[in-house]
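Batch manifest line 252
LIGAND: 2-phosphoglycolic acid
JOB: complex structure
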Amino acid sequence: MRTPLVAGNWKMNTTVPEAVALVDTMLNDLPFIQGVEKVVCPPFVSLDAVRQRVSGTSILVGAQDVYWEPKGAYTGEISVLMLQGMVDYVIVGHSERRQYFHESDQDVNRKARAALDGGLRVIVCVGENLAENELGHAESFVEAQVRAGLAGIETLDRLVIAYEPIWAIGTGRAATPENAGAIIGHIRGVVRQVASGPAADAMRILYGGSVTPDNFAAFMAHPEIDGGLVGGASLNADSFVTLTRQAAESTA
Ligand code: PGA
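JOB STATUS: finished
ARTIFACT:
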């Protein structure tokens, strides 16, 4: 039985005071929802403030990215060393990073390995674009991303995969639970091939892309889908709390 996970990716939204206000509103309900892992991923500059607010509660904190070198002349980058003690999770390979900042599968793999080596938990994002989807290449495209992203990683117990079709992110056009579940099942099969032992069955694989309180319960009802990586709907405390409740209820 895998514990569901709901992670809110705030992206480049919220000033520090806004981030604190958002998490403070969530604190009214979120800590009391059990049976689901809850992660908020504010921008770097708000991590410390948000971490202080949630400290002692069941809410976990994630960063939206990390660089693989521990320190040095990499202007603007943030290392694992800097995140240790501040976050529980880090997201790597989000499609916006791949698209706008030209991150390759190899970069994503370096980031994932550095974060895991540094003791963090990692959410590796994968997902095909519309053209690949329409050509019927979603499975093979995502499979290649998973194989490259996980290359050389031996222990998968701190790793989560998020399947986020690019055409569904921020568009209001979510995948269907059936299609997302089928791709996620395929991803689990790939993990089964690259990892020994029970890792694939224990791994949480999330869906992301226009998740809302109106569609999420149907995703959570699919046996392959273990949670959500949520963008827009995580910026509203009520909807994020509702999504978290739906995830908790899916296992009841
Ligand atoms: P969205 O974003 O929920 O706003 O579609 C999801 C994501 O990019 O993680």
